[in-house]
Write a structure and sequence with these properties.
This protein is of the alpha+beta class. It has 4 helices and 5 strands; from the N terminus they run ββαβαβαβα. Helix content is 29%, strand content 15%. Strand 1 and strand 2 form a beta hairpin.
Length: 149
């Protein structure tokens, strides 16, 4: 797994984990990486410093608690509206496959069935298995309408 620092064209910074650099490239090519703040697909890797171990860990004093959360964490006044719009777009343009999500996504990835936009549910271990296999999947930031009360 690799963690990338990402930035959208609106300037929002966020981190995300990928199986490998190729998995990130594949997801970007398919417009499947979105900013969690504004929902745009215009996302690029931000400049990152490599994590290098320097031998014995040095004890450093704990940083003071932040007085204000970073901008990407602050609630946007219209974040709820953007999330509703994202949900509406996904539900209008994708097929809900429910508990068959993992098998459908895997079959599309393997070329057994034609690609199509889908969404549904998968247990955490199945979702992890999909990621480990390189299947380009992302969690949704909401519960599908068919399963919410």
């Amino acid at each position: 797994m690799i963690k990338f620092s990402l930035r959208c064209d609106e300037g929002h910074a966020f981190d995300s984990w990928f199986k490998a650099g190729k998995a990130f490239d594949d997801l970007i090519a398919r417009d499947m990486v979105q900013c969690p703040v504004c929902g745009t697909n215009a996302v690029t890797k931000a400049l990152m410093a490599p994590a290098v171990a320097l031998g014995q860990p040095q004890k450093q004093p704990a940083p003071p608690p932040p007085t204000n959360p970073p901008p990407a964490v602050q609630k946007s006044p219209d974040a709820e509206q953007k999330l509703k719009a994202l949900r509406k777009q996904i539900e209008a343009n994708s097929e809900y496959v429910g508990d068959s999500f993992a098998s459908e996504a895997r079959a599309m990835y393997l070329g057994d069935i034609p690609d199509r936009p889908i969404y549904g549910e998968a247990p955490p271990q199945e979702a992890k298995a999909l990621i480990d296999e390189g299947v380009p999947v992302l969690p949704l930031p909401f519960i599908p309408s068919r399963n919410s009360n």
